[in-house]
Every structure is written in structure tokens, then in C-alpha cells.
Amino acid sequence: MNIIVVGLSHKTAPVEVRERVAFSPNLIERPLRELVSLDDISEGVIVSTCNRVEIYATTHDIAGGTARIKRFLADHHRIPLESLEQYLYSYHSEAAIRHVFRVASSLDSMVVGEPQILGQIKTAYGYAAEYRTSGTILNRFLHKAFSVAKRVRTETRIASSAVSVAFAAVELARKILGDLSGKTVMLIGAGEMCELAAKHFLTSGARGLLVANRTFAKGERLAAEFGGEAIPFEELFQELHRADIVLSSTGAPHTIIAPRDVEAVVKRRKFKPMFFIDIAVPRDIDPRVNDLESAYLFTVDDLQEIVEANMAQRNQEASKGEEIVEQEIGQFHCWLSSLESTPTIVALRARFEEIRRAELEKTLCGWKDLSPEAEKRLEIMTLSIMNKLLHTPTAVLKRAGQGGRTDLYTDALRQLFDLQTSRQDDDELELELEEE
Amino acid sequence: MSKFFFYCTLVLYGGATLAYLIYLLRTTPLLATWAHRLISAGFIAHLLSTIHRAVLTGQLPLTSMHESLSFFSLAIVGAFIFFERSYRVAILGSFVTPLALLAIIASSALPDEIRHISPILRSNWFWGHALMAFISYAAFTITFATSAMYLLQEHFLKRKRFGALFRKLPSLEIMDDISYRCLTIGFPLLTLAIISGAIWSVQAGGNYWNWADRKQVWSMITWFIYAALLHGRLTTGWRGRRAALLSILGFIVLLITFFGMRHSVTW
């Protein structure tokens, strides 16, 4: 059995194509069922996010399976396959395993290390499990992908730094003020960006929020939303000393906070550090405020610079993540190959058992004066002969599976004993694995 | 035996310092872990070496420059391990361990014969004086290191340099906090060391205070600087940059006192 991946992502397709191919999560049942009803596709999972649409499936026929899934994608979304094909990529076997591990670990994301993708794959898998379109192989495969993602997250610092401006502001404030719990944030003006940053500060532990807006009512509304306190704009400088973090974004045509204002405030605060972010254009805060003792002023450009530096660091950490993925691929591949041999073992055993039963019945039928004791002994003897005969081939096959050389043995056995592995065997196998 | 442990210490401190210095340039969490293990192992070896020597001579190993420097180094590393544990600031090691290594290298270069100070000078006041002085020196060494780190980090923040070192250095508040805590440990000890030194000086047949003894005079200057710093912190809220600069000045004067001025009595 092989794992195949067919899909497209932000790397291969523009957004107009991605949105046409996307699957809606509440209507996912039908496409999932259609997918597993395709010829020789036994299991399927559909992952659909704004940056990627991918189908994970299992098949015996790699080329045919891949072609059928591509056709399915085109037909389902009513796009001619010829125009869709250029955006699609497909992987099978080891490359497919690598791809999914990388995607789950957020190594293939637009913003490397972003945490959403793992949740999105988990949700997609949840649907497949609910509608029973994923089976033994994809179940195990995706659980493995989740654990690889977890390893990458904990063993590298891929997600340790902020990659949005609002988060960068929080990170920067921590470098100055240390622990943010108990710190007070002041909003001057009520821009959207400020609001977002304030939200981040409050979820990061900051306690109080002061809002100074020219329109007092608007300031009051915003303050109420976050459980803060509105202050009249004219009293800004009387209240400024209460703020540890100041976010300013008024539409004022000139600066509203001058160095001497801040100097007085800093003295009043006994030089407790103050963190200023000026989001307004033109600026609200005189740049010379940054030269004052215990006052640290940053603009959006500064924050953007941090974001870029953090991105560079993430990309560096990503190479450590790639190493972890490579280690894990080998292990999973071994398991997948050993799976190949299991249905053969089951079929072989069934064939032997069938022969033993038939012969035993034939013998017992013509043997009238046999005591129940002797009958039991015969049963045990034949069973143990069968087990002894099967012991070595089973062990050899399992070993071969771990070394990835199963095809040779399973093919030979199938031919020699005329075995047919069926769907039923897979079910038995599943039971066996669940017991594990 | 104490020599064997002493050389073990030298090697372990050397390894730890190297690891901490590489950690400045390369961000590998594993490196910090190993540096910490090395310095901890070094500290244990150093402690054993010091205890062995004390048992051997029947006196605190603070009688010669060799012994004093070694003890100074031991106290620095002890203080570092304590603060590293409580604040989890690995990068502190990159600033502190080189100082401890320098002290122990200097110590190893000096004659290590066992000296017995004359019975007149043997007094609990002397031992108390020396012990407290060195522990306060160690505390001030940590203050010096965190002050230097503070100034560096502040420079990055004011000039908007967001490099790898900026990322590794802790927040200004944490460094200021460590500085302050060390000051509150170091200053009372230094005060007690000066007082017990004066009492001991009387016992040894001198005066409480001898203005001709340059070491005493410089100790007083050191004391005044740290007193001013503590006073400024407690009353007008001196902190951050101002406090860091004064701490560095205090440490420089302290080094002059320790190395530059010979004691009129013992050395």
C-alpha cells in the first residue's frame, strides 16, 4: 500500500486558484465519500486551508491513483483538468511522507513556524475519522505527523519569536519592563492597530488600560470593551505617569508629546521605565523622547524590523526542523513496509488453518470409537504442527518488512500458496493494531 | 590533593568560560546546559580544594594573595550559580565566568606555599573581616556584570539594534533587579568587613583607623560609592543606566583597592 499526496499551495498556485479549489468544511462529507469511492483509493483525508488544499490517500496503484485524484479535484470544482494541472503537485511513498511531516511541522508554511496549520490538519483528520474515510494507514500516518510536529516545535526555536507587529510590540515591552503583569497600558487615540496591540498586551498579563481620545465618548466605548478607564484628552499629561506602556495613534498633524513632558513624567515615576510606541503618521511623539533616561520609543518601522529579524531566525531554525523530519521519515517508512507483509501472513495462516480443519474433519469422520480425550489431543497436535511450520516464515517476513524488502517475499508466498489478500484481512489487521 | 582539585577547577572553569563565550555568538540551548554543568562541576572541585587546604593548614585559606584570589573566584562562581538558578539567565555566565577564570588563573600563577600568619594577627575578627570582604566582592562582581549587560542591552534598545545578542540578553528590569539584590547583599557585608577590620586592627596593636594605610583609605572610597548608590536607589529612585554606571565605577575602585593597595599589616 502506498501513500500519495495531491494538492496545491501558496507556493504553486495564486490565491484565485486556491479559493476555487478550496473545500468548505461543513460540506466536506460528500467529497470525502466520493474520494474513497474512487477506484483503488482505500483511504482519504482532505485538508483545505486558505493557503493550501491537499488530499492524502492510500492506493496500490500510484500513477493511476494520482491521476484519479487530480481528475476528482478538477471535476468536483468544475475546472478543466488541463488548466488546473499546472498548479498541482503530487508525491508518493517517502516523498509523500516527507511532505506531510513538513506541512504539519509548519516548515512549508508561508510564515514558517506559524501554529495554525497543525490545528487545521487535525480538524481535517477529525472529519475523515468521523466519516470513516481514513483507516489503519492514514490514522497512523497522521498521528505520526502530529507527533513529528510536536517534536519540531519543542526541539527547535522555530516558533519562539514574534512575527506580527502587535506581538513584536509585546515582545519588545518584555525586554524593557520584564514581566508585564500589573503593568498599565495607555492608548492615545483609538486606531485599529492600537486596539489590536492593546488586546495583545492585555492577554499577555498587562492589568490596566487607560484610553485618552479626543472624542471622549469613543474613548469611553473602547475602555468599556476592555474593562479600562477613559480619561479626558486634556488631562493626558496629568495621567501619563500611570502608564508603563504608551501606544499612540492620533490623527494629529504635529507631535503631541514633547521631550520635556516625558522628562517630568519620568521623574515623577522615579525613573521607572516607560515604553512608547508611536503608530501615527505623522508622528505623535517627538523622536527625541528616545534620548531621555528610562524612556524607550519605537515606531512601526522599528517593530517591522524586529519582525523581519525574527523571520530570518525562524528560517534558520527550520533547518533543524528538517533534520527531525528526515529522522522520522525512516521510522514511519519501515512501519509502512512491515504492513505490506502482514496481510500475507494473515492469508497464509488462514490457508494453513483451512487445510488443517478440512483434514482433521475428514479423519475424525471415519473414526467412530475415538474418545473425546484423544480427539482433543489430535486437535492440539495438528495445531502445533501448523504453528511450528509457520513460525519461521512469519518471523522472516516481519524482519524483511523492517528492512524494507517485503515485495520479494510476499510475491513469492502469494504465488506459491495462491493467496489472495482481501479487504477482510485489512479489517483483521486493523483489529490487531488496535489491540497493540 | 587540594592541588589536584585546584587544577581540575582550573580546567573546568576554562571549559565553562569557553562554552559561555561561544554561547555569546551561537544560539544553542545545549551549549548553555553544558556550560552550566561544567561550571557547577568546577565549583564542586574548587570547594573541595578550598576545604582540603583549610583542613590541612587549620586556618581559613585567606592568608596569601594566592589563597585570596582563589577564594574570590570561588565566591564569584558560587554567587553566579545562585543567581543563574533563581533568574534563569544563562547569558550572565558569559559575563561572569571570564572574571572568575581570570581570578583563578592569577591565583595559580602566584606562589602557593602555606603561610602562617603571626599569632598576634590570628583573631576571629581577622577571619570574619576577610570572609565578609570576599563575599561582598563577589556580590559586587555580579553587580558589575549585570550592569555591563544592562548598558549593552540599553544601547541595543535605544539604537534599535535587534541582533542575536539582543535576543539573548534578558529584560532591563531583570538585570536591574539582580544588580540591586547584589548591592543589598554586598553593601552590608562590606560595611561589616570594614568594621571588623578596624576592630582587628586595634587588637593587633594599632589604631581603629590609619590614614596612612592606603588600603583602608581606598576601602572607604569604595564604601562611599556603594553607599551613594544605595542611597540614590532608595530615595530618589536611581535605577537603570545611572545605577549601572555607578556600579561599574564602584567595581573599578574595588579592584584598585584589592590589587593595587598593599595592606600595611599582612602583606
The coarse overall form of chain B would be flat
Task: Specify the number of helices of chain A.
Answer: 16
Instruction: Report the strand count of chain A.
Output: 10
Percent in helix of chain B: over 70%
Strand content of chain B: under 5%
Q: Could you tell me the mean pLDDT of chain A?
A: 87
| SSE order of chain A, one letter for each helix or strand | EHHEEHHEHHHHEHEHEHEHEEHHHH
Summarize the structure.
The complex is a heterodimer of chains A (436) and B (267). In chain A, 59% of the residues lie in helices and 13% in strands.
Please, could you describe this protein's structure?
The complex is a heterodimer of chains A (436) and B (267). Chain A has 436 residues and is of the alpha/beta class. Chain A has 16 helices and ten strands. In chain A, strands 7-6-5-8-9-10 form a six-stranded parallel β-sheet. A four-stranded antiparallel β-sheet of chain A has the order 2-3-1-4, with helices on both faces. Chain B is mainly α and 267 residues long. Chain B contains nine helices and no strands. The mean pLDDT of chain B is 89. Chains A and B meet through helix 8 and helix 13 of A and helix 5, helix 6, helix 7 and helix 9 of B. Chain A: Belongs to the glutamyl-tRNA reductase family. Chain A: Pathway: Porphyrin-containing compound metabolism; protoporphyrin-IX biosynthesis; 5-aminolevulinate from L-glutamyl-tRNA(Glu): step 1/2. Chain A: It comes from Pelobacter propionicus (strain DSM 2379 / NBRC 103807 / OttBd1). Chain A: Homodimer.
